[in-house]
Amino acid sequence: MAVYAHAASSPFDTAAPQHAAWDEELVRRYDKSGPRYTSYPTALSFHEQFGAEDFTAALERSNQTDRALSLYVHIPFCHKICFYCACNKIATKNTQLAEPYLSRLDREMVLTSRHLDTSRSVEQLHWGGGTPTFLTLDQMSDLIDRLDARFGLSSSPDRDYAIEIDPREADVFTLRHLQTLGFNRISLGVQDLNPVVQKAINRIQPRVLTETLMDEAHRLNFRSLNLDLIYGLPHQTQESFADTLRQVIELNPARLSVFNYAHMPQRFAPQRRIKDDDLPSAEEKLAILHATIDMLTQAGYVHIGMDHFARPDDSLVVAQREGTLQRNFQGYSSHAQCDLVGLGVSAISRVNDVYAQNPTDLARYEQALDAGQLATVKGLRLSQDDLIRRDVIERLMCDMQIDLAAISKRWNIDAPRYFADTLARLAGAERDGLVVREGDILRATPIGRLLIRHLAMAFDTHLPSDTTKRYSRIL
């Protein structure tokens, strides 16, 4: 296993005592509910007065910018439901059910590409779900061929073509096929390696499944490999999750996403199969998080922000260091300034100054496309204030700091005056040591990086007064 020297850009610098950056009482006080800011404004601000015509107009306007494209394809199918899941998915074992869906995806591609200059480079491609590896190898090939025919896929070594993989539904032949299709980055869902936890979440996944795929991915020279973990699941303890982390560190992935499980059974029916009494207490959950950050930073991973970690040589770390890291609906991205076109049920597009979302209901999605129309059911065109605040929140989430002078220059405003009310709202966080002001630089401290969602909320003018019903807790 390669162990990297600890990077100075990590928010928990192991050169200093870990307890200097960790104040449990402070963390608990600021651990409120709030958005993850994969977009600003968040999807709660989208409205149904925004429709397909508004989205097509935005697509056409975007051609004047000559920005590269990012394509997201949502595959909603899974063979089996995991009880923790909050994704838009359809459980079935019949892969033939994907055929009509792929046909409608193609219709959506045709309708969308009519309004795009398809000479624009597709720098990013991401298949998510559901479980994209639900598709057969032939169906995957067919989908790639359709995407290439409609948009023109890239063979550039700098492209970022990623797919989410369930290790229970893939093997070494799957990886070899994905490589021939042009994918160069994969993300494996692991969640936890403890058998008791796996049984409680209905996801039995022995380590050997993950390890075999990782070995093959390294042999095939996939550029980057991510593992998804979740803390806060039933029966997890600090000790049990530390054991999972030790095994994961041995596997040596380039990136790790360690998500906070948000138990919201009133919104997500599968979560009703999880007993409240089996979940770790708030104290235990924080202990798991603290130990996770300690173990991963000591193993040489850089804490990008929130729940993302990466090795110092990974493109995410390089992008953060160079100030080009971006945040979108798939999380952190090293490819800045792309127009994101979302395809499939529930998919969201971010094109120029608009967001557009497809229906979460499959029948409604199919009905629109069968009528020869884009399936957009809601969205939002951003105001000038929205655009400015989106820029500021994204830089805060990605850089862990805000350069007010740069914001002033970029938007032709006096940023300190423009955000005077916001800066006043951050005074308490500054007193508590979450953020420091050094001239025009507003910088999150190590503990502030962990609570970066709270800092971002100060800039959010769309935030509802009660965030507890619609958003998960920060930690």
Automatic annotation (TrEMBL):
* Gene Ontology MF terms in the entry: 4 iron, 4 sulfur cluster binding; coproporphyrinogen dehydrogenase activity; coproporphyrinogen oxidase activity; metal ion binding
Residues in the signal sequence: none
Q: Which GO terms describe its cellular component?
A: cytoplasm
Q: Give binding positions for S-adenosyl-L-methionine 2.
A: 84-86, 130-131, 191, 203, 228, 262
User: What keywords are annotated for this sequence in UniProt?
Assistant: 4Fe-4S, Cytoplasm, Iron, Iron-sulfur, Metal-binding, Oxidoreductase, Porphyrin biosynthesis, S-adenosyl-L-methionine
Q: Where in the cell is it found?
A: Cytoplasm
Its pathway is:
Porphyrin-containing compound metabolism; protoporphyrin-IX biosynthesis; protoporphyrinogen-IX from coproporphyrinogen-III (AdoMet route): step 1/1
Q: Which domain of life is it from?
A: Bacteria
Chain residues that bind S-adenosyl-L-methionine 1:
72, 129, 164, 348
Q: Which GO terms describe its biological process?
A: protoporphyrinogen IX biosynthetic process
Cofactors required: [4Fe-4S] cluster
Q: What is its EC number?
A: 1.3.98.3
Catalytic reactions on record: coproporphyrinogen III + 2 S-adenosyl-L-methionine = protoporphyrinogen IX + 2 5'-deoxyadenosine + 2 L-methionine + 2 CO2
Cofactor mode of binding and number, as noted: Binds 1 [4Fe-4S] cluster. The cluster is coordinated with 3 cysteines and an exchangeable S-adenosyl-L-methionine.
Domain Radical SAM core: from-to ranges: 63-299
- The record lists [4Fe-4S] cluster as bound by 78, 82, 85
Tell me its family. Belongs to the anaerobic coproporphyrinogen-III oxidase family.
Quaternary organization: Monomer.
> What PANTHER family does the entry give?
COPROPORPHYRINIGEN III OXIDASE, OXYGEN-INDEPENDENT COPROPORPHYRINOGEN III OXIDASE
Matching entries from NCBIfam families are given as: hemN (TIGR00538)
Stated name of the protein: Coproporphyrinogen-III oxidase
Phylogenetic classification of the source organism: Bacteria, Pseudomonadati, Pseudomonadota, Gammaproteobacteria, Oceanospirillales
**Name of the gene encoding the protein in the UniProt record:** hemN
